Amino acid sequence: MLEIKQIRKSFGSNHVLRGIDLAVNEGDVVALLGPSGSGKTTLLRCINFLEKANSGFIRIEDTSTNFAKISGKEKIAMRRKTAMVFQNYALFANKSAGENIMEGLLVSKKMKKDAARAIAEDFLDRVGLKSRFDARPFELSGGQQQRVGIARALALNPKVLLFDEPTSALDPEMVNDILDLIRDVAKSGVTMIIVTHEMQFAYEAASRVVFIDGGEIVEQGSAADVFDHTREERTKQFLQRFRLVRGAEY
């Protein structure tokens, strides 16, 4: 489904990604864990081509490309296979909730307005915001804005859905609602990569956990492998700060 090999990314002398290899199967829910500055968000942005990696290869389904030699046409084709949910929502302030969802359908997929509106209404309904089509972002709570962001990404029908710390900007009482929504999306079979600091969520919801530090993958495996049978000392040091509830539904 998704395979990346030897992705490297530097900002000047700062080497953020140092040769990342990662394979994601269809339907996987992959949680990317690691300290701030470890390269998690940069990796997502490279997969989505919001950042251009310095080198490496990426394949999504039967489409592959070399980051060092990618053309504009190839970049657009690859980007259409993914969709991103941002930590700060990234909604257009001058557009309604529904129009924010429609925008990608109109611009990227070249849909007619009526068709795009019908899809936007459907996905707003799915995230519990059926009545808020005409609401502007400033009229919505943070949790509602993030629901719009998730609806916008899902409406594009991506092969891989990317989440960049989707709860980090939310008030604590809103976090569980968004995590419940993401878990429901995961149950539908959508392939997902989630950068998160919500360890309990990662433990319960992820089919695979990947721990990144210093721009390198330190450890990966099932949630039980990484959390309960940790092999690497660096991973142990990171995880010991978090207390998990084992054996309870989350």
Mean pLDDT: 93
What's the alpha carbon Rg, rounded to whole Å? 18 Å
Indicate the proportion of strand residues: 15-25%
Query: Based on DSSP secondary structure assignment, what is the total number of beta strands?
Result: 10
Q: Strand count, sense and closure of the main sheet?
A: 6 strands, mixed
Strand order in space, largest sheet: 6-7-8-3-9-10
Secondary structure category: alpha/beta
Order of helix and strand elements from N to C terminus: EEEHEEHEHHHEHEHEEHH
**Poorly predicted ranges:** none
Please tell me what the overall shape is: globular
Helix content bin = 25-40%
Termini separation: 28 Å
The number of helical segments is 9
Task: Describe the SSE topology.
Blueprint: E1 2-11, E2 14-24, E3 29-33, H1 40-47, E4 55-60, E5 63-66, H2 72-79, E6 82-85, H3 97-107, H4 113-126, H5 142-155, E7 160-164, H6 172-187, E8 191-195, H7 199-205, E9 208-213, E10 216-221, H8 223-228, H9 233-239
Quickly list its features.
alpha/beta; six-stranded mixed sheet; four-stranded antiparallel sheet; 10 strands; 25% strand
